[in-house]
Amino acid sequence: MPKKPSHSCSECGLLNCYRRDQHFPDFCLTEGADCEVVGKVTKIYRGKSQDAVIARAAAEVEGTYYGKLTRVEEIIAFAHRIGAQRLGIATCIGLIQETRIFVKILKAHGIPSYTVLCKVGSVDKTAIGIPEKLKVKPGSYEAICNPILQAKLLNRQKTDLNVIVGLCVGHDSLFIKYSDAPVTTLITKDRVLGHNPAAALYTSNFYYQRLLSPGQKL
Ligand code: SF4
Fold this sequence. Notes:
Blueprint (H helix, E strand, L loop, with lengths): L15 H4 L9 H4 L2 H10 L5 H16 L5 H11 L5 E5 L4 H13 L4 E5 L29 H10 L4 E5 L5 H8 L4 E5 L10 H5 L16
Helix pairs in contact: 4-5, 7-8
The structure holds iron/sulfur cluster (SF4).
């Protein structure tokens, strides 16, 4: 069995792959990458395939508006560049107000959309084996988040680009897995940090030191 490498890009202090103004470390993934793979992947980004269109549209939005547009606006700019006629929105129930505002903004930019709420299907959590005690409100009817159904209903609508608004960790994984259209995220849910998960990392040197303590079983 090949030895598992102990270093990867997170241990690299040079990041030379970006501008080639340093040098590559011994364990570099760029240097170690099989040239054939690099070539094959680069080829995917050329030409007229959907992957190529997406790659170039994303780079164009980045290059044109770097540091100037909000993510809401970037999604609109990206949607225009990939020729998306209609957007799908997979929203969390807890962010339905934000979704309604996003829908209004899309409309103002001439982009129709179709929204599916996470609780669609209204299947009680116990129906999939989740014990009553793990409900947020035990003893009440509590629908599961249903990301596969969200994806299937958006697939049926043949949306061109699907946008995640605050789906839970894991539910987002299933939505992405089942979505026919490419997926991007407007809001990444963090119930504690006002949907800014990076705040835990920014404050981990003091307020959120617990994140770094070994043995905290989650
Ligand atoms: S690809 Fe190489 S240079 Fe780039 S971050 Fe990874 S290890 Fe560093």
